[in-house]
Design goal:
Elements: E1 6-11, H1 17-28, E2 32-33, H2 36-45, H3 49-55, H4 62-68, E3 72-73, E4 77-78, H5 86-104, E5 107-110, H6 114-117, E6 124-130, H7 133-144, H8 151-170, E7 182-185, H9 191-208
Length: 209
């Protein structure tokens, strides 16, 4: 497939969204960004990657103050970025990096409000991956070595963190179909089948342009 699209993947915890995004990028032979965005943000800012990783996709309330007093402008960056908590600094850096990467060409990017960041990009295809709670718990136990006794709590907490992060920085509700071009229930399909669905959808969109 001759792909000129950018794909954003928003995902419930344990739904396999990372694997689907990576497999899609591999199939299309285009760059893939998930945790890689943390490394890029750390390199640009000089902050230790482990510090950013600890706050990745978590929101604070401080950015509201920064916006209200005019410290930040998406075009120019922070005039006093060093005064912000690490959470907000990471979001701002990843926002900037995602936009810059989108200007360079096709890519698949997971999380980080990428669908919102690229809301005005006509080449961006926005995907939401979800699954039933039992399959997500099973994946969390098998893939992330989470104690089965607390797996459901961990899954729901991760989703809550992602929802709060998305709501805070985008002003929209996480997981609502209106925010995405395509929502896929991964409960009963394989990673390959999910990728097939996304590519079929992208081909249809391309044919109709």
């Amino acid at each position: 497939m001759d792909c000129d699209n950018i794909v954003t993947i928003t995902r419930q915890y344990g739904s396999g969204g990372h694997d689907i995004g990576k497999a899609l990028a591999d199939r299309l032979n285009i760059p893939f960004y998930d945790k890689e965005l943390i490394s890029l943000a750390a390199k640009e800012s000089g902050v230790c990657p482990q510090i950013f990783e600890n706050v990745d996709e978590r929101a604070t309330n401080s950015l509201l103050y920064s916006l209200s007093v005019g410290l930040y402008n998406y075009g120019n960056g922070f005039s006093s970025m060093g005064d912000l908590p690490v959470n907000d600094r990471l979001y701002i850096l990843q926002h900037k990096i995602i936009k810059e990467l989108a200007e360079k060409g096709p890519m698949v990017v997971v999380g980080r409000c990428a669908d919102y960041v690229l809301k005005d990009n006509s080449n961006a295809v926005k995907i939401f991956i979800y699954a039933d709670i039992d399959s997500r718990i099973k994946r969390a136990v098998e893939r992330n070595d989470i104690d089965p006794a607390r797996a459901k709590q961990a899954v729901l907490k991760a989703d809550k963190n992602r929802a709060n992060y998305y709501s805070f920085y985008s002003g929209k509700k996480w997981g609502v179909a209106d925010n995405y071009d395509l929502c896929i229930n991964s409960t009963h399909i394989s990673t390959k089948q999910a990728v097939d669905i996304i590519i079929d959808y992208m081909n249809i969109i391309k044919a109709n342009k």
